[in-house]
Amino acid sequence: MRRLTLGLTAALLASAAHANDSLQAIQQDPKQFGSQLGNYTGNRYSELDQITKDNVGDLQVAWTFSTGVLRGHEGAPLVIGDVMYVHTPFPNIVYALDLNNDGKILWKYTPEQNADVIGVMCCDTVYRGLAFADNTIFLHQADTTLVALDATTGDVKWSVVNGDPAKGETNTATVIPIKDKVLVGISGGEYGVRGHVTAYNIADGTQAWRAYSTGPDEEMLVDPENTMVLGKPIGANSSIDSWEGDQWQIGGGTTWGWFTYDPELDLVYYGTGNPSTWNPSQRPGDNKWSMTIMARDPDDGMAKWFYQKTPHDEWDFDGVNENVLIDREIDGTMRKLLVNFDRNGFAYTMDRETGELLVAEKYDPAVNWATEVNMDPESDQYGRPQVVAEYSTEQNGEDVNSTGICPAALGTKDQQPSAYSPKTQLNYVPTNHVCMDYEPFRVSYSAGQPYVGATLSMYPAPDSHGGMGNFIAWDAVTGEIKWSLPEQFSVWSGALATAGDVVFYGTLEGYLKAVDATTGEELYKFKTPSGIIGNVMTYEHGGKQYVAVLSGTGGWAGIGLAAGLTNANDGLGAVGGYAALSDYTALGGSLTVFAIPD
Amino acid sequence: MTKPRMALAAALIALWAGGAAAQQKDMAVDSNDGIRSFNAEGTPVPEIAEDGTVDWPTFSGYRRYHAECHVCHGPDGEGSTYAPALKTSALHMDYYDFQGVVASGRQKVGASENSVMPAFGTNPNVMCYLDDIYTYLLARGTDEVPRGRPAKRAEKSDAFTEAETACMGG
After folding, report:
1. What is the average pLDDT across B68-84?
2. Which residues contact A465 (CB under 8 A, 6 or more apart)?
3. Taking 70 as the threshold, does the pLDDT of residue A102 lie above it?
4. CB A516 within 8 A of CB A52
5. pLDDT digits (tens, 9 = 90+) for A63-91
6. What does the alpha-carbon distance between residue A322 and residue A547 come to, in Å, rounded to a whole number?
7. What percent of chain B has pLDDT over 90?
8. Are B76 and A458 an interchain contact pair (Cβ–Cβ within 8 Å)?
9. Which domains does chain A have, with CATH numbers?
């Protein structure tokens, strides 16, 4: 009876108010950690301040938990009340752990999935974590089945299938509950999947709307007159006019990244991925709206504004990274901003209400494929990256090896989410410091099969510190790096900033590191059982602050870096000069939870 | 005179690299059908000239491997955190078994393993270049071709182009 009343109340609240009240209440309580990005703004910032830059050096392991799964562990656990929810990569097990009882397993849910899906996941069987709203845990499985689990019992409330793995459609991303709906994306850009975002009703799992990334206006939920692109109406047929023939149908623009949401503006933000194939000569045009930041109304999906970061991609600079919503003063006026650290190496600061482009600067000095993003509203190049001919795989053509392109296809940053501290007004960004050679060639499409069309080799950024990553602090208003910490491997772990003036991140060797939020000085490190590609989170229980992270090496980083990266251009001189991840860490999913001893 | 010397070198390299199983791979070039080279058993082998120039099919195998295979099996056939190093598999697996696994796939799924090799039998980007990929991996396994992009390659023959066009469907 109690549950029924609660359910009714939640339903009433959800329909009456903005955001999702149950989720917002948790987001406003720093003791809990209710979303993968910490909250709707995506800032991965916690108000908890028991652990400070002065005492973080005393941090110790409080408890650990083995997930029982070996492959790459991305994402983070959630803490709702006295329960921690832990997810795994395929087979996507969910554990509910009782924090009042030393992490005893309250319930465990193991989905039944056809193992064929493993073979069509491009870059390991990663899963970036659960979502919560209305006493429901949302599990989005690898095979695209979205399951609503009762958070108390683990019972299935409903499930719905979002895509078809036989066509290469899979899922790796988390979902976002907004009001009475939950929004989900799809993976498979390397299989020619046509990307879309779909909203399902939280109450029963029925579909509310679907917005494609490419194709006719009505299928993209675009209004030719009222959807804006850099201050101008988008116009009719903006997508299909930017492709040859019907290539948009297998044109990618998948949506496997993160969602953020502004309850006041009532807009949800996400990015679309690369156009398929990786051979740009095979798909002339701007390939809209791949590589695009999208702002939509979460109720009906209608698009408010778009901005395409990399028109006609030639490098696999998949545009799905998180859009962090921050408020900062520019020229004496508080602005509602959106900050995006794109794979292409540019960090974009935009007005999140209008989609106006304010700042676009390189956040790794190695970035060389474009000189700049044109910032002149009067120019026909406005908002477009100015591509350097030498690094243009389109201009160099098919069957030509373009060399020395920075960043590599991994991007200056991949999915690993950044953090932002309102106290320091700095964004903390885990980055890759890797360059590549890229040779496109002709491929043919067949459903459910890889549709790649380029050979590439990757290597640490030349003439730098020799490592493959940096952890940086970024000022999104000035567009400048405040400090940069060199790392031997790509930093493939999501960051966390806290009111204790500490920033946490993990490394591929397996270290959890804590640094001073102002100076970047390293304050603490501990080597966990395996490489970290998960995201650091924090919560408070029984009056004590904890920091937790999943380790378990893998992901795309585990593909490229396992044996180390070599620069073919270095010839024999480079033999032995590269670092292999397999020399540092091995597989194994485990959760490590830290606290300051009493 | 070139051929026997190469064969000897290849045999020696195989001895160093792989032990007993690798010794069974006959890397000596016995024939060439105008497209690629074969050993005495009639299975494809790479042909690497003394100056390191790789035959076109093996170079093509490098390209196709790094488009279709490396997203799981890692760069240069070196393996990843979850998929085996194919440069070693190629030395230890029978040519026909290799073809079978690529075409039909293979699953090792259980409590400790979640490995799935998809079936590429309907994928022309893989199947039309399967022999190329195979000889590239043999060359990697024996270290006849070092890591990275082969520095020198032979030109594509007309016969190769013809066969490629026919296979890829025009």
Report:
1. 90
2. A433, A486
3. yes
4. no
5. 999 999 999 999 999 999 999 999 999 99
6. 22
7. 69
8. no
9. 2-11+18-29+39-595 (2.140.10.10)
Q: Residues for chain A: how many in total?
A: 598
A351 catalytically annotated: no
CB B154 within 8 A of CB B59: yes
**Distance (Å, whole) CA A389 – CA A596:** 54
Contact A471, A433 (CB under 8 A): no
- A72 CB neighbours in chain B (<8 A) are 81-82
Q: Which of A434, A451, A457 has the most B C-beta neighbours within 10 Å, making it the best mutation to test the interface with B?
A: A457
* Rounded (to 5) percent helix, strand, coil in chain A: 15, 35, 50
Name the interface residues of B facing A (CB cutoff 8 Å): 62-68, 70-72, 74-76, 78-83, 85, 105, 107, 109, 111-120, 122-126, 146-149, 151, 168-169
**Closest C-alpha to A141, from A301, A156, A219:** A156
**∠B108-B114-B116 over CA atoms, to 5°?**
60
Q: What percent of chain A has pLDDT over 90?
A: 86
Q: Which residue of A has its CA nearest to B68?
A: A450
Domains of chain B: 2-168 (1.10.760.10)
Nearest Cβ partner of B74 from A69, A90, A562? A562
DSSP letter assigned to residue A256: -
> How large is the average pLDDT for residues A560-569?
71
Q: Which ipTM was obtained for this model?
A: 0.83
> Where is pLDDT greater, at A547 or A12?
A547
Contacts of B80 in chain A (CB under 8 A): 558-560, 562-563
Q: Could you give the 3-state DSSP secondary structure of residue A254? A: coil
Taking the C-alpha atoms of residue A489 and residue A135, their distance in angstroms, rounded to an integer, is 39
**DSSP H or E stretch at residue A279:** none
A70 vs B72: CB contact, 8 Å cut-off? no
A155 in Cβ contact with A109 (< 8 Å): no
For A339-373, what is each residue's pLDDT tens digit? 999 999 999 999 999 999 999 999 999 999 999 99
A94-to-A88, A151, A444, B89 alpha-carbon distances in Å: 7, 11, 39, 35
Residue A406 pLDDT class (50, 70, 90 cuts): very high
pTM: 0.92
Pairs across A and B, CB distance < 8 A:
129
Find chain B residues with C-beta within 8 A of A401's C-beta.
149
Q: What integer pLDDT is reported at residue A125 of this predicted model? A: 92
Return d(Cα A481, Cα A467) in angstroms, integer: 18
Q: Residue A453's CB: how many other CB atoms inside 10 A?
A: 25
Give the E-state strand segments of A383-516 in sequence order: 385-387, 402-405, 419-421, 426-432, 434-440, 454-460, 469-475, 480-487, 496-498, 502-506, 511-516
Question: Residue A570's pLDDT band (boundaries 50, 70, 90)?
Answer: low
Q: What is the pLDDT of residue A578?
A: 60
What backbone phi and psi angles, to 5 degrees, belong to B4? -60, -40
Distance separating alpha carbons of residues B17 and B88, to the nearest angstrom: 9
Cα(A206)–Cα(A497) distance, integer angstroms = 37
The active-site residue, picked from A217, A316, A364, A501, is A316
Residue in chain A closest to B83 (alpha carbons) equals A559
The tokens for A367 are 């970035």
Give yes or no for residue B154 having a pLDDT over 70.
yes
